[in-house]
From TrEMBL:
Domain Fe-containing alcohol dehydrogenase-like C-terminal span(s) in chain numbering: 165-349
Ranges where the Alcohol dehydrogenase iron-type/glycerol dehydrogenase GldA domain occurs: 12-153
InterPro entries on file: ADH_Fe/GldA, ADH_Fe_C, Alcohol_dehydrogenase_Fe, MAR
Keyword DNA damage (UniProt): no
Coiled coil: none
Listed SUPFAM superfamilies: Dehydroquinate synthase-like
Keyword set, alphabetical order: NAD, Oxidoreductase
Family under the similarity heading: Belongs to the iron-containing alcohol dehydrogenase family.
Source organism of the structure: Advenella faeciporci
Keyword set includes NAD: yes
Protein known as: Maleylacetate reductase
C-alpha cells in the first residue's frame, strides 16, 4: 500500500431516528446559552418549533438563508449575531442554511451545531462558499466546521421526493469525486464506495415511497459518508462546473450537481482507471465506459430534470461555463479540454445522454 495522509474531522456526530428531540440537552452539555436557529424562509416554521424545544437557551429564529450565500446576506447575518451576543448558531436545513452559518463562523468564530434535513453534506466539512458579483468562491477554515452534527432521518421524511433525489445525487457527487481526488486515500475511498452504493439503492426507494424510513436512514447514512469525503479530500472538475453554474447563473445547487455528474464522470472515465473501476462497481455496471450513462439513467429513474436549460441555464451557458472552468481550473486527473467540455455541457444543456 502506498503512503498517504488522512485528516480526521474533529466534531461530535449523533445519528438516529428522533435524535433531534434531544438537541437542548446536547447544546447544554456543550455550554451554549444563547442559541440562534438559522433557517431558510421556507423552513421558518420548523425553526420556530426547534426554538421552542430550546426553551431558555433560545435566542430566536433567523430565517434568511438563501442559495449560494450572497455576501450581502452573510454580512447582515454577521451583524445580527454580533449585536445579539449569540454564542451558537443552530443550522436547521440544507446547504443554504449551513452555508450561512459557516459565513457567520468565518467572521465571528461563532460555533455551529448542524441538523441537516437534506443530503447536501456541507455539515461535515471545513469548506465554505460565498457569492459576489456573480462569482462563487470557496475556501477552507477550521472555524466553519460544525462542533456538533445531529442526523435524524425522521426529519427528512417530509422532504419531497424530487428534492430528496436531487439532494442525494449532490451527495453522491462528493463521494464520486473523492475517488479521484488529488489527495485521495484508501480510507476515504472505502467511505466513498459505500456512500455511492447506499445512495444508489436508497434514492429510487425514496422516490417510490417518500415515507420509507429505512430508505431515509440509508440515504442519510450515504450522505453522511459523502460529507466526510467532501470534508477530507479535494474535489475536481465536477465541483468546478457546479460552482460556476451556481455562482455565474444562479442555478439551483442540488439540481445542477445531479444533472452534470453523468457528464463529469464520462469526461474522466479514462483518467484514473483505479477510481473509475471502483465507481463502476459501486454503481453495479460492468465497465467504466458505462458510468456516465448509468448515472444519467439513475437520474431518469428519479424523475430528475435532465437538461440544464430546464433549470435556468441560458443558451450561451455551455460555452461560457467551459471558458470559465478552463481559465481557472480546479485539480482534475485529466486536463481541461475546452472543445470537449463545451460539447459535453451542450449535451447537458439539452439533456442528451453523455455518450
Amino acid at each position: 500500500m502506498n503512503d498517504f495522509h488522512y485528516k480526521a474531522l474533529p466534531l461530535d456526530v449523533y445519528f438516529g431516528n428522533g435524535k433531534s428531540k434531544g438537541v437542548k440537552e446536547i447544546l447544554t452539555q456543550h455550554g451554549y446559552q444563547r442559541v440562534l436557529v438559522l433557517t431558510t424562509p421556507e423552513q421558518e416554521g420548523a425553526g420556530q418549533k426547534l426554538a421552542e424545544q430550546l426553551e431558555s437557551i433560545s435566542a430566536g429564529v433567523y430565517p434568511h438563508a438563501v442559495m449560494h450565500v450572497p455576501v450581502e446576506v452573510a454580512n447582515k447575518a454577521v451583524e445580527y449575531v454580533q449585536a445579539n451576543n449569540i454564542d451558537c448558531c443552530l443550522a436547521l436545513g440544507g446547504g443554504s442554511t449551513i452555508g450561512l452559518a459557516k459565513a457567520i463562523a468565518l467572521k465571528t468564530h461563532t460555533p455551529i451545531v448542524a441538523i441537516p434535513t437534506t443530503y447536501a453534506g456541507s455539515e461535515m466539512t471545513t469548506v465554505y462558499g460565498l457569492t459576489e458579483n456573480n462569482l462563487k468562491t470557496t475556501g477552507k477554515s477550521i472555524h466553519v466546521l460544525p462542533k456538533v452534527v445531529i442526523y435524524d432521518p425522521e426529519l427528512s421524511v417530509t422532504l419531497p421526493a424530487d428534492i430528496s433525489a436531487c439532494s442525494g445525487m449532490n451527495a453522491m457527487a462528493h463521494a464520486v469525486e473523492a475517488l479521484y481526488a488529488q489527495d485521495k486515500n484508501p480510507i476515504i475511498s472505502l467511505m466513498a464506495v459505500d456512500s455511492i452504493r447506499a445512495l444508489n439503492v436508497a434514492l429510487p426507494a425514496i422516490v417510490q415511497n417518500p415515507q420509507d424510513l429505512e430508505a431515509r436512514q440509508n440515504a442519510t447514512y450515504g450522505a453522511w459518508l459523502a460529507g466526510i469525503c467532501l470534508g477530507s479530500v479535494g474535489m475536481a472538475i465536477h465541483h468546478k462546473i457546479c460552482h460556476t453554474l451556481g455562482g455565474t447563473f444562479n442555478l439551483p445547487h442540488a439540481q445542477a450537481h445531479a444533472i452534470t455528474l453523468a457528464y463529469s464522470v464520462h469526461y474522466n472515465r479514462n483518467a484514473d482507471i483505479e477510481a473509475m473501476d471502483l465507481l463502476a462497481g459501486a454503481l453495479g455496471v460492468a465497465s467504466r465506459e458505462e458510468i456516465g450513462l448509468a448515472i444519467y439513467r439513475l437520474n431518469q429513474s428519479l424523475n430528475i430534470p435532465l437538461a440544464l436549460k430546464d433549470i435556468g441555464l441560458p443558451e450561451h451557458g455551455p460555452e461560457k461555463v467551459a471558458q470559465i472552468i478552463c481559465d481557472s481550473p480546479y485539480y482534475n486527473p485529466r486536463g481541461y479540454d475546452y472543445d470537449e467540455l463545451r460539447d459535453l455541457l451542450s449535451k447537458a444543456y439539452q439533456g442528451l445522454p453523455p455518450v
